[in-house]
Amino acid sequence: MVPAMGRTLFQKVWDAHTVRILPTGQTQLFIGLHLVHEVTSPQAFDELRARGWRVRFPHRTFATVDHIVPTRETARPFADELAETMMAALERNARDFGIPLWHLGHANQGIVHVIGPELGLTQPGMTIACGDSHTSTHGAFGAVAFGIGTSQVRDVLASQCLALEPLKVRRIRVDGPLPPGVYAKDVILAIIRRLGVKGGVGYAYEYAGSTVEAMTMDERMTMCNMSIEGGARVGYVNPDETTFAYLKGRPFAPPAGAWDGAVSWWRGMASDPDAAYDDEVAIDATALEPVVTWGLNPGQSVGVGERIPAPEDLPEAERAAAAEAIAFMGFEARAPIAGTPIDVAFIGSCTNARLSDLREAARIVRGRRIAPRVKGLVVPGSQRVRAAAEAEGLHEIFMAAGFEWRGAGCSMCLGMNPDRLEGRQICASSSNRNFKGRQGSPTGRTLLMSPAMVAAAAVAGEVVDVRRFVSHPVEVR
Amino acid sequence: MSTTRAIRRIEGRGIPLRGDDVDTDRIVPARFLRSVRFEGLEAHVFEDDRASWPAGRGVHPFDDPAHRGASILLVNRNFGCGSSREHAPQALARWGIRAAVGASFSEIFFGNAVAIGLPCVTVSEEDARSLQDLVAASPGEVIVVDLDGPSVMAGGRLVPARMPAAARDAFLSGRWDATGLLLDDFEQVEAVAGRLPYVSGWRADRP
Questions:
Q1: Average pLDDT over every residue of A6-14
Q2: What would the CATH number be for the domain defined by A291-468?
Q3: Pairs of residues, one from chain A and one from chain B, whose beta carbons lie less than 8 Å apart
Q4: Which chain B positions have a beta carbon within 8 Å of A70's beta carbon?
Q5: ipTM
Q6: What is the mean pLDDT of chain A?
């Protein structure tokens, strides 16, 4: 029977990967691509050994190292013994179970959510799982991609499946050209501010509308990456010509001789025009400005021209958290966010460490020096990004401005490697989380913003509107 | 075949952990994830929050002798948001938590908790707060989380609770450790894989 109404991409991908309904009522879902890294996998491999299981689809499983790797002193053994132990465990597990591993020093190494797409592993219509919540990034290609914990990593290794319940789908339509100096990062921060950090619980977010359609794959990845910060485990964009053009010729993309068939299958996975959604939200891109967080979750943000709110001005349910955040940050209620002095500027992470991010940041710092009190760090998302940036001379621009130019990894996003905030330092960061202690110092402070805004803050030594640095007209998108 | 045990009813004293959006970096800071084992994580549960607990507000619930030995965690909205680290529920379980009751849970946290046999049930925001108040005032109060209801019994009151049907069934039937189930019928898995062109191999385009 022909269904009366069209289906969303989420439903099509879910249906195509459903193995069966389990006796518990959960769906057994086949996982088409499993990405593995050093932090959330060792206990899973240990359980496989203990139970005598093998990895069932080793050719659909790929490993790299990103969270714990140093971005400066990369010689082995690592200075940090704990990191060395984790690295050695992943090497042994990959060898014992027959999984490809791109280790430190390999040209394909990098943050798992940067290398999957750039190698062409990430493709439309797939289910993708990884023991990391920012796996939602891969949804930019029209995949259903989500983070899992270690027991579920074990499940995928052992069976290539997960026991899950389907999500509802909320379409978020963003329309209109982005104003100059406003980036994908600002769009997603504005969405999280509007819908809240728990607004997406139970939903997959489908990003649509003319703004999203005009975005590059890098920009779409930035948006999908932070879906989880809005509570949505999955975020995706329907695949289109931009997606296909990005994938063509990548190492793991379908070969030229099979390309047309692949594109046709991918097109068929996109949401139907008459698909029904559980909820719809509209955002006017033309009204957006650069966004900065002032608090302890990614929904606590304002436009750079706005003031930090006073708890009593917020809805009752948000007041206690706002008061705690303002006290922790050492801010004053109703003070402008612009002018907040910074100590560290971090350009990196799976949200914003792709070539286009580095280009935008370099455009701001070119010919300028970062403020003497600011420590600046640029950490490419992958070895490939690093090589491409160096081929364009971006590293020279950053280093001439006073930034450190590092190797690929998660770096200062999460405090699991030598790159950490110290004491009460305050960091302008292109990463995704401003949680208390997130950047490695329990008392350190994080202000999330776009890479261009971080670059501008580094130069000014304080939070500043990047549009002041963009003197020439920005191309109309 | 699954070998895990059925979980129907959890009984114990409660520990109130107030606040919305308590993220997994707070439950267990990232620096303690630099290990290939989960053992010992219980020592670091809420470590930074506990160390920075403001003077004049008593002690952090996890440092409060009155809550020592508690096994039912009482939280508010969106507990466990953020990172997918299973280390968060692992740290709580190893500390002694055997069930959580809250107004809502982040999905990844919830899934991780199910996978290690730690049921999370949701109650109304008001009930979540009143359970915390009850336990703060009377730490010795016994709380019963009954997945059959599902319900929470405390202070002579029966509080209605919710839990997704499939997760609830998984606990009641002892099938919350999914790997066995997922391996039960592997021919079906291979059939699905065979129908997916990106797994089975893209066919050559017609010339």
A1: 98
A2: 3.30.499.10
A3: 233
A4: none
A5: 0.95
A6: 96
- For chain B, the distance separating the N- and C-terminal CA atoms, rounded to the nearest angstrom, is 49
Question: CA of A440, closest CA in chain B: separation in Å?
Answer: 7
On the CB side of A292, how many CA atoms lie within 13 Å of its CA? 29
CB contacts, 8 Å: A418 with chain B:
none
Does pTM surpass 0.90? yes
The predicted-structure confidence for A328-362, as pLDDT tens digits, reads as follows: 999 999 999 999 999 999 999 999 999 999 999 99
Sort out which chain A residues have CB atoms less than 8 A from B180's CB and list them. none
Chain B closest-CA separation from residue A90 CA (Å): 9
What's the pLDDT tens digit per position in B149-169? Answer: 999 999 999 999 999 999 999
The answer to whether residue B115 neighbours chain A at the CB level (below 8 Å) is yes
Q: Is beta strand A27-30 parallel, antiparallel or unpaired with respect to A18-21?
A: antiparallel
Would you state the pLDDT for residue A470?
76
Mean pLDDT for A358-381 is 97
pLDDT tens digits for A267-294?
A: 999 999 999 999 999 999 999 999 999 9
Q: What are phi and psi of A254, to 5 degrees?
A: -55, 145
Helices and strands in chain B, H and E counts = 9, 7
- Tell me if B36 and A202 make a contact (CB, 8 A cut-off): no
Is residue A5 within 8 Å of residue A275, measured between CB atoms?
yes
Pick from B35, B169, B198: CB nearest A123: B198
Topology classification of domain B9-175: Aconitase; domain 4 (3.20.19)
Chain A CB contacts of B107 under 8 Å are 201-202, 231, 233
Residue B138 amino acid letter: S
Residue B54: alpha-carbon gap to chain centroid: 27
- Three-state DSSP state, A384: helix
On whether any CB of chain A is under 8 Å from the CB of B190, the answer is no
Would you call B182 and A154 a contact, using CB atoms and an 8 Å cutoff? no
Determine the Cα–Cα distance for residues B54 and B51; give it in Å rounded to an integer.
9
What beta strand segments (E) does A127-180 contain? 127-130, 144-147, 161-164, 168-175
Residue of A248, A229, A151 lying closest to A190 (CA atoms): A229
Residue A81, both tokens? 């013994």
B residues 57-86 near A, CB within 8 Å? 77-78, 81-86
> Domain A9-269: what homologous superfamily?
Aconitase, domain 3 (3.30.499.10)
